Amino acid sequence: MFEARLAQGALLKKVVEAIKDLIEDANFDCNSSGFSLQAMDSSHVSLVALSLRADGFEHYRCDRNVSMGMKLASLSKILKCANGDDAITMKSEDNGDTITFMFESPEQERLSEFDLKLMDIDSEHLGIPDNEYDATVKLPAAEFQRIVKDLSTIGDTVEISVTKDAVKFGTTGDIGNANIMCRQNKAADKPDESTEIDINEAVSLTFALRYLNSFAKATPLSTHAVLKLSKELPILVEYHIPEVGRLAFYLAPKIED
Amino acid sequence: AAQQASITAFFGAS
Fold first, then answer.
1. Shortest alpha-carbon distance between residue A56 and chain B (Å)
2. A27-74 pLDDT tens trace
3. Confidence grade of residue B14 (pLDDT, cut at 50, 70, 90)
4. Beta strands in A125-217 (DSSP E)
């Protein structure tokens, strides 16, 4: 059987809210090392990779590897019934056709159980090469969210250019153009506001803002978003979930003909 | 204009 208890149930709520508009349904894979998901959006332009480590759960048991297909909209409906401070336990019998979500309030005066029907989903598992990236930018998650939101009011795509000291986000649209530059800033007294750039080679790539805006829904999960870029490769946008795991998004670039 | 690449062009089936 599979059973996992997350004391901070809100994390699971935030993860599902972050991905439910990007992917319709997905297989959640559970094994002894943790709970994970890999899924592409319906246009096969982006890929979501979630991994929650077994040791990030208060209690974790997985007797055999299981893959549980769920419709994200249904999962979201159920998790919306959990309070933000509830602990969430997921349970499923081997070969079961449902997964049970149990919500416990902090004083345990309220216990609720919701069963979600599992689905058979044919999904393609992609091999993600373990690249060394040309540039890594770690910036406050809220700042990244604001940049992609603001630029979306002007254009559809963003050119992200990283140099040694700064990262520049630029867009062009019918009404004009916009550029936002963030300089490296390792403020030791305000670590949550730091912007750090680690670069092997200057890089500049263009991406669809619509997807980056969707990825930014993961902002509540982490203080920082980490962007990893290499020439002519998908961008990796990572949100580290402290002590539990990470939610990562890959987006294929726009390429000149 | 720039064309949107597919993610499967970069990451093969495993």
1. 27
2. 999 999 999 999 999 999 999 999 999 999 999 999 999 999 999 999
3. low
4. 135-140, 157-162, 166-173, 176-183, 196-199, 203-208
Nearest Cβ partner of B4 from A40, A45, A125?
Answer: A45
Contact call for B7 and A254, based on CB within 8 A: no
First vs last C-alpha separation in chain B: 32
Contacts of A233 in chain B (CB under 8 A): 10
User: Choosing among A45, A205, A212, which should be mutated to test the B contact, i.e. which has the most B CBs within 10 A?
Assistant: A45
Q: Kindly provide the ipTM of the predicted complex, given to two decimals.
A: 0.94
CB contact under 8 A, B13 and A129: no
Cα–Cα distance for residue pair A166/A133, rounded to 1 Å = 16
Spatial contact of A9 and A86, defined as CB atoms under 8 Å apart: yes
Q: Radius of gyration over alpha carbons of chain B, in Å?
A: 9
Give the one of A44, A125, A254 whose C-beta lies nearest to B3's C-beta. A254
Helix (H, G, I), strand (E, B) or coil at A249: strand
Q: How far is CA A32 from the centre of its chain?
A: 22
CB distance A233 to A221 below 8 Å? no
